[in-house]
Amino acid sequence: MTIYKFPNTDGANVKFASRYLNYIGGKWTEPRKGQYFENPSPVTGESFCEIARSSAEDIELALDAAHAAKSAWGKTSVAERALILNKIADRMEANIEMLAVAEAWDNGKPVRETLAADLPLAIDHFRYFAGCIRAQEGSMAEIDANTVAYHLHEPLGVVGQIIPWNFPILMAVWKLAPALAAGNAVVLKPAEQTPASICVLMELIGDLLPPGVLNIVQGFGFEAGKPLASSDRVAKIAFTGETTTGRLIMQYASENIIPVTLELGGKSPNLFFADVLDQDDAFRQKSLEGFGLFALNQGEVCTCPSRALIQASIFSQFMEMAVERAKQKSQPGNPLDTATTVGAQASNDQLEKILRYVEIGKQEGAKVLLGGARAELGGPLAKGWYMQPTIFSGDNAMRVFQEEIFGPVVSCTSFEDYDDAIKIANDTLYGLGAGVWTRNMHTAFRAGRAIEAGRVWTNCYHLYPAHAAFGGYKQSGVGRENHKMMLGHYQNVKNLLVSYDENPMGFF
Amino acid sequence: MNDVDGNGVSDGASPSRVSVTPAAAVWLGRLQAEHGPLLLHQSGGCCDGSAPMCYPLGEFMIGQRDVLLGHVCGTAWYIGGKQYEPWKHTHLTLDVVEGRGSGFSLEAPSGIRFVISSRLLSEAEINELDEPARGPQTSTG
């Protein structure tokens, strides 16, 4: 086990700058208005750097740089673009511990997760799309003996991307890798809660990309996000966040008639059929672990399995084991200790929102089986934003079953049979993720098809390979991320309809 | 404004589905002074999904299915029609905490964030409350 030193202390492997500017046209650029905001670490609750507070002028500068770069980048051969993405991946891999600690410090998540998931997945994402773009082919259709339809892929040009705070680097890379592979120039706005780790990444990889191909503009939604999302100089806008902002972004996009992709969260059901307990074996433990994943990333995951639906015949036995397991395995602690499984919530307001949800859950009659309060940690962590993993037992109509709490909180209820399970699973506004656990593959397949969600993890959960499509049904959003199909969200289709007939049609 | 539930105030006659804490009312006033009339829309989903979003009036297009929960400090507070259904048995109080916020809500740069506190509406309140108004309805005839 390793305990990493706090950044900027003696012997630490991460040294943050005292101030981060915007990254525009390959240069660190001061915000035009000269304003900055403080960036606290959730680990300690204390500010560790200043970040550019940008406005419309800075977005315009970044768009100027992106437009200047887009043609050359779009015409760069796919071999060359793929090579650059692979170089980015290699450099990230060579610096993985530094990036993992920087990410943990900026977001509050345990370094155990950034080392095992966030960074390896981000690195692989660049490699995956480097491979995809090399292998992508257009098509040719023979319309008749002398007429051919060619279909070619072209980049959109300049795209805007607004990134959430729960996986600051990985969510940025989910959007960047396909956009860059497809030959687009990007203006990206990180979340204001977690703006620093992407700057550390840019310091590391910035020189690998031609100036202007990737521009980072920091700031707040209304001041910097809106000018980006409403610009008539972006060909597409991608956003991960919540429903009201999602609607606002669609509204802006409608002014310019540009496409949007939106990932807006969910309230993912995790279904446990009775046979998971049939034997006291590895699969039983795997299922219980699948339940425990509600605490991954402190529950700040759009697909957090925050509704556990457990067959009534095993409900008591399952809950007893699940609560005991969570008690043992999910304890908040120092995020920079590789033994820690639960870190800090990303912001004070997030912690406050979680605590308020616990309150309404209790008022509605949900029983607290575990946790239910702020976690008080001592020493330098005393002012950090820690929450006890919390397990509720209640009814699917309760607010804690209907709204994404975005905390380490799972709401559990029982179902009688298969039909009841599917009815409860689909009784939600959202449809992003779901889990199904059973030893019966017929049940697993039927349930997976019947659940209205973009991804149904079957006898697994919280795996995010680049080669599996991710996105929502219902109010969880529009479009997909991951998988080579994602290239389609960042490309136009050019059809060349060519006649090789020398003779007139004889029609007009 | 009249005291509704001891922890906040609401515009108009009680009962109401919404209220505002004194601290949040101060911030609404400051934002009104800076940006003009405002609108609140209760978000759902991921990240900042359980938070109310505060916009300059007219920025966010209220749709025909949005539900008007009520007014706080003269500011209309809406929620999406589908989201209203699982929320309709609860009363929301606009509150404010230190934070970074997100989304496009106006207060975020000030280092504070609007949040909601919820409580169950009593049976008496539910009986007294009228069916809430919706967003602009246009005739299809």
TrEMBL record, chain A:
UniProt-listed SUPFAM superfamilies: ALDH-like
Extract the InterPro entries matched here.
Answer: Ald_DH/histidinol_DH, Ald_DH_C, Ald_DH_CS_CYS, Ald_DH_CS_GLU, Ald_DH_N, Aldehyde_DH_dom
GO MF annotation: an example: aldehyde dehydrogenase [NAD(P)+] activity
Describe the location of the Aldehyde dehydrogenase domain by residue ranges.
Answer: 28-495
This protein's UniProt keywords? Oxidoreductase
Which residues are the active-site ones?
A: E263
* Pfam families in the cross-refs: Aldedh
Q: Does the keyword RNA-binding apply?
A: no
Keyword Oxidoreductase present in the record's keywords: the answer is: yes
The family note in this entry says: Belongs to the aldehyde dehydrogenase family.
Q: What is this protein called?
A: Aldehyde dehydrogenase
Q: Which organism is it from?
A: Enhygromyxa salina
From TrEMBL, chain B:
Domain of life, per the record? Bacteria
Recorded hits in InterPro entries, A to Z, give: DUF779
User: Which Pfam family name is an example for this entry?
Assistant: DUF779
- Output this protein's name: UDP-glucose 4-epimerase
Organism expressing this protein natively: Enhygromyxa salina
